[in-house]
Automatic annotation (TrEMBL):
Pfam families: D-Glu_cyclase. Its EC number is 4.2.1.-. PANTHER family: D-GLUTAMATE CYCLASE, MITOCHONDRIAL. InterPro entries: D-Glu_cyclase, Putative_hydro-lyase, UPF0317. It comes from the Bacteria. Gene3D superfamilies: PSTPO5379-like, PSTPO5379-like domain. The keyword Acetylation does not apply. Belongs to the D-glutamate cyclase family. Keywords: Lyase. The keyword Lyase applies. This is Putative hydro-lyase VVR66_11780. It comes from Kocuria carniphila. The lineage of its organism: Bacteria, Bacillati, Actinomycetota, Actinomycetes, Micrococcales.
Length: 266
């Protein structure tokens, strides 16, 4: 994608971005609608909703809940005039923990008993990192952010259990402290990193083989920095195998009407 295209996408309002997704724009959402918060999705039947809420409560670092739509609801305060079934670039449909479809519209899968959880996303603090001179390798290289399952286990809740998933951004060694400081001010969207440096300490044996997203080139003098990731609930669905669930496709988020600054603390 050309740099000018990135600039144009950054200028879109959330409503404009969601309209483009409804019309078929399919791409990761990092860098789109600069200044507005993005969210992961996990959509489950009502009978599983308490387990998801408890899982999020017990694992707030990877699963900070920004909002919940009641059973059957398709819009709310975070996407005014929007539709949760059509307004993301891509979704993943799971049956018994297995990825069975990756549609751009989930209307045909929709049921009146489905509860939607919107979970904080680290894309929300990327503008703050950029404003502090820390570039995003996945945007510069025009790929999706790399994400990895780790050897750290989440606290189980009811029928759900699974590993912590992390996203990775290479940061110049001289700017790592700045990256920690900047992102620590956004606890509602994962906050400070969970790990800096050697990926093997997280059980990641090959940094060039992410479980989700795409690999990025790590330039000399850069250090891999890992943040908790809202794909964690998907990993729990894949491990725990509930009968039915829907999520966003990793890196293809809901762009909300909330401002990044709404989730910034002093």
């Amino acid at each position: 994608m050309k740099t000018t295209d990135h600039v144009d996408l950054a200028r879109l309002t959330p409503r404009e971005a969601r309209e483009r997704f409804r019309r078929g724009l399919l791409r990761p959402t990092s860098g789109i609608s600069a200044g507005y918060a993005q969210a992961n999705l996990i959509i489950v039947p009502r009978e599983l909703a308490f387990d998801v809420l408890l899982f999020a409560q017990r694992n707030p670092k990877p699963c900070p809940v920004l909002g919940v739509l009641d059973a059957g609801e398709t819009t709310g305060e975070l996407l005014k005039d929007g539709d949760i079934r059509t307004d993301l670039p891509q979704y993943v449909v799971y049956e018994n923990g297995r990825d069975i479809a990756r549609p751009t519209d989930i209307t045909e899968y929709w049921r009146d008993d489905l509860v939607t959880f919107m979970v904080g996303c680290s894309f929300t603090f990327e503008d703050a990192l950029l404003n502090n001179g820390i570039r995003m390798a996945h945007n510069d290289q025009d790929v999706n952010v790399p994400m990895y399952r780790t050897n750290r286990r989440c606290e189980p809740a009811g029928s759900l259990s699974g590993p912590l998933v992390v996203s990775m951004r290479p940061v110049p060694a001289s700017q790592v402290a700045d990256a920690v400081r900047v992102t620590s001010r956004y606890p509602a969207v994962h906050g400070a990193p969970v790990h800096v440096g050697n990926p093997e300490e997280l059980g990641i044996n090959d940094i060039n083989q992410p479980d989700f997203g795409d690999p990025v080139r790590i330039e000399p003098g850069h250090i891999p920095v890992f943040w908790a990731c809202g794909v964690t609930p998907q990993a729990a669905v894949m491990e725990s195998r509930p009968q039915f669930a829907i999520s966003h496709a990793p890196g293809h988020m809901l762009i909300t009407d909330a401002k990044d600054s709404d989730y910034q603390v002093p």
